[in-house]
Design goal:
Blueprint lengths: L6 E2 L1 E2 L2 E2 L1 E4 L5 E2 L15 E3 L8 E4 L2 E2 L7 E8 L5 E8 L1
Parallel strand pairs: 5-10
Antiparallel strand pairs: 1-10, 2-3, 4-6, 7-8, 7-9, 9-10
Length: 90
């Protein structure tokens, strides 16, 4: 499967990007799992420590719980680096 190139600003040592989830990923809410437990790890890499990063899902700073629909996930570092991916939860 072809994955779109991660979007982000050039950072020391490479392109800062989101490693989980990938742009275009599709998920389903697991049957029988309560909403507060239906989460997905958000991870970023290359060029910045994860210390102090802020995560946004659909424009709100939050921990992501899987909810049906299309979502934009964005990460920002204290140095101004950022990256964004789009996902769908069915």
């Amino acid at each position: 499967m072809h994955r779109p190139r991660p979007r982000g600003r050039r950072a020391e040592g490479g392109l800062f990007h989101i490693t989980s989830p990938h742009d275009g990923d599709r998920y389903g809410v697991p049957v029988g799992v309560g909403g507060r437990y239906a989460t997905l790890a958000l991870r970023a890499a290359d060029g910045a420590s994860e210390l102090g990063v802020r995560w946004f899902v659909d424009g709100r700073e939050t921990r992501w719980q899987l909810t049906p629909g299309s979502h934009t996930i964005r990460v920002e570092t204290p140095r101004g680096q950022s990256a964004e991916v789009h996902t769908v939860v069915q």
